[in-house]
Amino acid sequence: MNTHNARVKKSKWIGVAQSRRNTYAYKRTSNMTFSDLLFWVLAAAVCFMLLNFQFRYVLTGSMKPEMEIGALAVIDPVAEPEIGDIAMYEIHGNEVIHRIIDEQGGQYIFKGDNNQIADFSPVEKEQIQGKVIFYTNLPAPLIRKARNLDE
Based on the domain organization, do 127 and 84 belong to the same domain? Predict the structure, then answer.
């Protein structure tokens, strides 16, 4: 009876080799399962947290279409933002994520991509909390629903 053929499924196995005593089946190594992907995403998130990055989500549509309401942003508090970068600054106890459009005399001018005019007051370098180094709109629908944010 040929038992090794009964154990090998064509969709998961790519080959069978036989020695004098044993039969070996070789698995595909290129298929990544959902649990593998989830593991690597969580491992990357832990690494980001360990490196002191900050995670924020976007509350308004001022950065549309680049960043949707509910988009998740990763902020690096050490990176030096430049003109054209998206950065987070603090003003009157609120955190704002907008794009730097100009620098005048050591102060930065910010503007949301979806706003018609620049933010009201120039931002001092000390107010800048960090540069957005990564963002994703993937969790946006879930965050909007969980936080009851308007689209």
Answer: yes
Identity of residue 37 = L
- Among the residue ranges 29-43, 68-82, 86-100, the one predicted with the least confidence is 29-43
Q: Which residues contact 142 (CB under 8 A, 6 or more apart)?
A: 70
- Give domain status of residue 20, yes or no: yes
Average pLDDT (138-151) is: 82
How far apart CA 86 and CA 100 sit, in angstroms, is 6
Residue 44 has pLDDT above 90, yes or no: no
Contacts (Cβ under 8 Å, ≥6 apart) of 11: none
Name the DSSP class of 33. P
Give the range of the structural domain holding residue 27, as residue numbers without chain letter: 4-31
Residues contacting 41, CB < 8 A, separation 6+: none
